[in-house]
Amino acid sequence: MAKNRRGRGKIEPKPIGGAMATILDGRYQLVKPLGVGGFGRTFLARDTRRPGAPTCVVKQLKPASDDPGFIREARRLFNTEAETLEKLGSHDRIPQLLAYFEEKDHFFLVQEFIEGQSLDRELQSDGAATHVQGHEEAPTTLTAATPAPKKATEAQAVAILKDVLEILEFVHGEGVIHRDIKPENLIRRQSDGRLVLIDFGAVKALGEAPPPGEGSGESRYTVTIGTPGYMPTEQCAGRPNYTSDLYALGMVVIRALTGCEPTELPHDPDNGELVWRDRVKVSSGLAMVLSRMVRSQYAQRYQSAKDAMQALNAFVVPVEAAPTPTVTSAAPP
To answer: Of the given ranges (11-25, 185-199, 274-288, 294-308), which has the lowest mean pLDDT?
Structure first.
């Protein structure tokens, strides 16, 4: 069993309406629901077979079709994905896969609990929130007006880039494309302030029903996974590659620097490139690195996370990063 090296905090979650009776695989007692998505549900749970019944996260992946062929393909994808997550979980900043199993045509992943806050929440100004994979506790106090978004400093932006590029170099080295890098899937771990990458996108394919009228075979179950604004054109077309993750990370950092959602930023009508440099003042080195990461043609981007990291180290002068919570408010447009 892995040691407590990732900041697994001991928490005492309060069950909703008393203890939940459901125990999965004879050991994982569901404590409370955390979130519901198109691909299934997420629960906070306890592993009753380990000393102290430590907290973990259980993701239920329910195939969207009862078609026997789809179930067979879902099972194959699930087993392949679980093996991939098992391999990736050896990295300190990817949640460790603790178990995976099937019960009554439902598929379950059990993952390490990460206590912290999403980058998306960091870039908002409506109060702190605790994040669990796939769920955020909303602040109890609501404001009447929509608060202005926050902007990261250049030092903070560089720190985000370096943190995530380190993870992507490992992930891509294992032959995996994340496909859904966005602020919500980057968690600032409470124990050490490092970013953790969560929610690898391929498992979401199990929640997508096969298109009607498609022919048989594996391609019948192919789905496009990602988030508008963070997906480059080749990923929208169902052909992601390693540079697609670099594009998404570039958009994450541009979002952090400008305070603008990716879908709010225009594109040059002549060449299709993203127009963002007029929204924030940054060094020419950082601007060059980010602009190359988000080029519309993937052949013109950095071809690996290692290449992007080398460029960042070569062209961006190191500056001392401000503390994570210190972020400037952007003026409303």
So the answer is: 11-25
